[in-house]
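writing this on my phone so excuse typos. first protein, seq and then structure
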Amino acid sequence: MKQVSPFLMFQDGRAEEALNFYTNLIEDSQINEIIRSGKDDQGEEDLIMRAVFMLKDQEFICMDSSIKHEFDFTPSFSIFLECDSEDEIEELFQKLSAGGNVLMPLDQYDFSRKFGWLNDRFGVSWQLNLS
């Protein structure tokens, strides 16, 4: 086995918008590869068939589904960010939650001096914790 990578499947052609948003928001992140569908492929042309991107040192893979599914992302699987400062956690929480929904407000909890949990506008779940 080479490695293990989280795989995100987006509906409605939103993969590129999401990976651009994530890689621009989180420092030391980049898009490594994008493979698009062509006119001979199933579904719409120019959908992302496979994209590889890095958030910090973690590789992610994503795609646009050419088929409408009855399921989407679930908060039971989330991306966990360990933040270094108050400013960082507050900015990330504000930007990631815009257009999404907050599952646990950014606050102090028994298990953390500052923590928040949200679904972003794409439906992807994030947990943010202040180190």
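second protein below, same order as before
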Amino acid sequence: MTTTETAPIIPSFGDEESGRKLAIICSKGNLDMAYPGLIMANAALGEGVETHLFFTFWGFDMINKKTMGDLKFTMLGNTAAHMPQGLGGVPGMTAMATHQMKKSIAEVGVPEVPEFLQQIVDSGGHLWACRMSADMQHLEAEDLYDEVEAIISASDFIEKTVGAQMLFI
């Protein structure tokens, strides 16, 4: 390497012997935003990475027993849907878009959200609920998916995931 060249930037993921950690903050509860965090968690666990998911704000829909099995996908305001935005407001479009997305997800063999969460837990993943979000929504531990380990503060989550790569979804 000459003096005018710079060394390539290579990210450091820590000492292999100390183990890798991934912390995923799930802040969205609509169907299309639930899956990225779950897929990343599943992939990380498959690579032996210690994985923690923290559900906050609308992400609570993913772990709320009343809503977790019925997440919706709306085209309204979603330019990636590649459809005229006006169609998103037409009655029945959210139901149709949700049905289509669930069908596409099932066709590639990806489980629905509750089953995916169970798969993550069975693989050693950790699920945490945000204390502030629980308080704002007047939810208690019994309202949440049984595999959520605890309702904790954001500070507690930061402590549990010291040294982790952090993803905010």
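Residues 38 and 63 are 12 Å apart (CA to CA). thats all i got for now
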